[in-house]
Amino acid sequence: MKKKTLFAIGEWIAVALLIWLCFHENLIPIGGSTPEETHRLSESSFHYGPSEIVRKVEVPFDKDQVIFLGTYKDWFSADSVYRKRGGWFPGGGVAGVEIDRDKAFSYSWEGNSAGDSQIMYKFYGYVSDDRIATMELLMTEKDTGKPVQMREEITNDRMFLFLWKIKDGSRDWQAIRGLDKDNKVIYEQTFGT
Amino acid sequence: MRRIASALTVLRRTIIIFLVIILAAYYIEQWVDSGKRGINDPMKELKADGAVATIPVGKSFAIDNDTFTADAVYVTNKQIMVTYTYRMKQRKVSWSFPEMSLKLITPDGQQLTSHSGGSSGFSWGARGNVSYGLPDHPADRVMLIYDLYDRYGEIELPLPKVGEGT
């Protein structure tokens, strides 16, 4: 082979090595190749879990977001992972929230900007009381005063997740309630608005 | 053919120079700023308080596959600062070390309040610092504790006599 060609090949190998080094030093963050991998890596880096994934939720109004509902010892979490530039990256909710066994259910929430003065809310929790068959989240539209009710039936995984995307500040939260199979309120937490 | 070959050579060499500059900048920053632990210069902050007592520590504990090392303790008449190095195994999809959740507990059981911290992150981990208020009563040592979820680690930090008229 000609010397020039050998040099050229050598230099292309150098290019490949340098690009590899950029990835290795995280100068070009690549993220995980699947939502599951990113969720697992996010938890291990956070020194939490590994949690038992009880439900994987593909967010209906955001195809680039997946939420993993899970439990780990005395904690529950709803970990969001996001797809960007072809890879999956960690988001909020990886931090486990303590299950308060003295209460019928434990909950947490998160609101993230979804562009254009819109906020995407994630309201989630774990139901400790076996009598609770349905979880209900009550809100009202600020401008019309109309009530907004979100309901979820509790299954074996004992967790609930409410997702909604609205204009920032357009709703007031009233209460989160746990109802038994006869629709009787077992436990309610009101929000002071 | 020859024109394509020389165009490729120019492209190839431009890419190499570009990548070398980026990587060189990254490595030089790590080497030169090895004292850097965040946005503010911690030593400058400490010297502003007056006299600084320095005690090297160099003790570590593991958190899963990662290692936390308390490098040194600095004490002034206003604060106790702990500098640390955090080395992580996992390079991608990583969270920064939760330094503000580190607790400092005195032998008589007082938990000191952490009021500020800073860190510089790298692909392998971070170097940072956390500052705490002084204890109510003089103490010759303090326990640095990491206690999150079911992970736990502790290091005993020696202190010069602090708390009263240092």
From TrEMBL, chain A:
UniProt protein name: DUF5044 domain-containing protein
Organism encoding this protein: Cohnella terricola
UniProtKB/TrEMBL annotation, chain B:
Keyword list, A-Z: Membrane, Transmembrane, Transmembrane helix
The keyword Membrane is assigned to this record: yes
Transmembrane parts of this sequence: 7-28
Source organism superkingdom: Bacteria
Protein's name according to its UniProt entry: DUF4179 domain-containing protein
Lineage: Bacteria, Bacillati, Bacillota, Bacilli, Bacillales
